[in-house]
Design a protein that fits this description.
13 helices, mainly alpha, 3-stranded antiparallel sheet, 8 strands
């Protein structure tokens, strides 16, 4: 058996050799981990029937794949995987793996594109790709996917943030909103915070509240290592943090969203998402020249993608202002 190689995609591939009927046969095995790829190769060499050689239906392959990942992926991800298995690509789910063709997959993907956003279709195809890499590793999935669309990014203005903070004053939403604006903490992180996570102005984030595959709310660890962090809040939060008895808020993430939108509506404030409070925080920190790595650490981001999107949006707005300033200067001096 050849040595396992890590592919550019992050997966591992092993090429195995075996003598069958006097001839040397070669077979390639690809999996998420080095150990899994090597195990598939060894089982094939030993003459065992591997999962990848079973002619099961795509639906059964999805079921086994999700079960194999249940202990390592987040409850949210497992729930979404199960939902996708029950809802998406239904016209090919009962087809046996040996009968599955790229044409059949493409037709099914095209149907999904009629009723779902490009991002959702890409997620559907991504899960399908992961399943096929385990159960049909030699199959090359090369589907054509809908073009990505860029959603307009909304960053609340400073005036809108002040309106929101004033409207939330002395309500159960005041502290959750302030933690999102100044933290910037996510809804799921805020819902999981307890008194034990607070030390003066220091708020430690080490868990979040999410739904599992059965729709039950459970405590889970942060999605990435960067999610673990301790954020020191501004002095203006001290009275509220000092008064936390048990939990920061009794509200689940979805309840925070509902109450936030109700607050905006009742106070005639422009409607935007609770998550956009985090965007405002990034925008504000950039405006006072805080380096990106410190913004990432405070917000629990492992990638600069979101921050750069917000920063680019800010630069676009600033470019308009600067262009006006340049042209006004030329007009004043040369007209």
């Amino acid at each position: 058996m050849a040595k396992a190689k890590k592919l550019p995609s992050g997966n591992w591939r092993v090429q195995a050799y075996a003598t069958i009927n006097g001839s040397v046969a070669k077979k390639s095995f690809t999996a998420d981990t080095k150990k899994q790829a090597e195990l598939l190769a060894i089982e094939w060499q030993n003459g065992k029937k591997t999962l990848s050689e079973e002619n099961i239906t795509l639906s059964e392959a999805y079921k086994r794949y999700i079960e194999s990942k249940s202990e390592v992926l987040s409850p949210n991800t497992i729930r979404e995987y199960k939902r996708s298995a029950e809802r998406d690509l239904q016209d090919i789910m009962q087809i046996k793996l040996n009968d599955l063709t790229l044409e059949k997959i493409q037709i099914s993907i095209n149907k999904e594109s009629l009723n779902h956003s490009p991002k959702t279709v890409r997620n559907i195809n991504g899960l399908l790709s992961a399943v096929l890499k385990v159960f049909k590793p030699d199959f090359v999935l090369n589907t054509s996917l809908p073009q990505k669309t860029k959603k307009p990014l909304y960053i609340p203005t400073e005036n809108e943030i002040k309106q929101v903070l004033q409207a939330a004053k002395n309500t159960n939403m005041e502290l959750p909103i302030m933690l999102a604006v100044f933290g910037p903490l996510r809804r799921s992180e805020i819902s999981a915070l307890t008194k034990d996570d607070i030390d003066g102005l220091k708020v430690t984030v080490n868990k979040s509240l999410a739904k599992n595959a059965d729709g039950e709310w459970v405590i889970k660890p942060p999605k990435t290592y960067a999610g673990y962090r301790t954020v020191e809040m501004p002095q203006l939060l001290k009275p509220l943090l000092d008064n936390v008895v048990d939990k920061v808020t009794p509200y689940k993430p979805e309840t925070i969203t509902k109450k936030f939108h109700r607050l905006l509506k009742e106070n005639n404030i422009n409607n935007f998402r609770f998550h956009d409070l985090r965007h405002y925080c990034v925008s504000y920190l950039h405006s006072i020249n805080i380096p990106t790595k410190y913004i990432m650490a405070r917000g629990g981001w492992s990638s600069e993608t979101v921050i750069n999107n917000i920063y680019n949006h800010m630069l676009k707005d600033k470019n308009i202002t600067m262009t006006e300033k340049i042209n006004n200067s030329f007009d004043d001096n040369f007209n």
